[in-house]
Amino acid sequence: MPDFPTEFARSMPKAELHVHLEGSIDPRTTLALAERHGVAPPADDEQGIREWLRFDGFPSFLERYFFVCGLLRDPDDFALVAEAYLLSAHAQGAVHVEFHVSSSHHIIERGADWTEILGGVVAGCERAESRVGISSLLIPDLSPHLGAAAAEQALDVVLENPHPRVVALGMGGPSDTWRTDDYGRVFDRARAGGLHTVSHAGEHGDAWEVIHALDEFGAERIQHGIGAMSDPDVVARLVDSGIACDVCPRSNVALAAVPDLDGHPLPQMLDAGMVVTLGSDDPPLFATSLLDEYANAWQMCKLSADDLVGLAGNSLSNSFASPEMIDRWLADLSDVSF
Ligand SMILES: [Zn+2]
Predict the structure, then answer these.
(1) 203 catalytically annotated
(2) How far is the CA of 248 from the centre of ligand 1 (A)?
(3) Residues 6+ away with beta carbon under 8 Å from 120
(4) Are 217 and 197 within 8 A, CB to CB?
(5) Does the predicted TM-score (pTM) go above 0.85?
(6) Active-site hit among 203, 216, 220, 293
(7) How does pLDDT run across 109-141, given as a tens digit for each residue?
(8) What CATH architecture applies to the domain 6-320?
């Protein structure tokens, strides 16, 4: 197996469609936010934060996630983290990022002012765009543990504050309430309001979640989707429809959806002809990056350079960027030589 061609992979124009703004905060930015707000950081330096981030089990993951999330207080904080992540993605060759933003958490759980948060995130996106030209869009995510009424409320606020960068409504978190609460209506309203719809599904659960996300939420992309592999009919449906799964192998290992990278179904997904894009999900928490996920896929699936180009192309053509921008990026991708 040849070594992963890091510089070639970096040179490929690509998009990242599955990364959470609140989970993208690197150790340096975590320290800066803690200092800004006079909060004692969990460690004194970047290496210490990196070690602290190595969680042990889901409760410890959530504890770290919410500690870092709790440092996001002012619009400037949101601007800082959006810009920092976009600059890092650009350094890995990304030309476009679609941030999942936990709208339910901010609007419902924290009672925060969404217009201020949106203003901050957009300012960070604009700063990164003006510095390095990277494109970015936003996907407010719903948290199903709060129930459908809270989801309706969060959507109301999102729809009351339309912005050209807010392009889709997403669903994150566990599926416990999917069959008891009517989220279908929430997604119908989002579409009527001009948004695309996507959903996490088939991360820990099996293929039923993917069917539910397609049929009830009208998902145009699935985040993870590895659970689809439990049902050949669902695999066939995803292949026939060309609906992309935004797969994050390291996240699946870290959160024990699969035992290890060798036990991850990515090779079977590609062999089946499913449309896959690669993402990093919550990169500092999973000790990964977008480029690392390309390296993981290279190793796990015994990919060729052409296969890497295919994955990058999937990420571009399945983004919600304008057709003109997608065409331009795909043309740039076709010019990249191994
Ligand atoms: Zn995710």
Answers:
(1) yes
(2) 8
(3) 74, 75, 76, 77, 78, 79, 82
(4) yes
(5) yes
(6) 203
(7) 999 999 999 999 999 999 999 999 999 999 999
(8) Alpha-Beta Barrel (3.20)
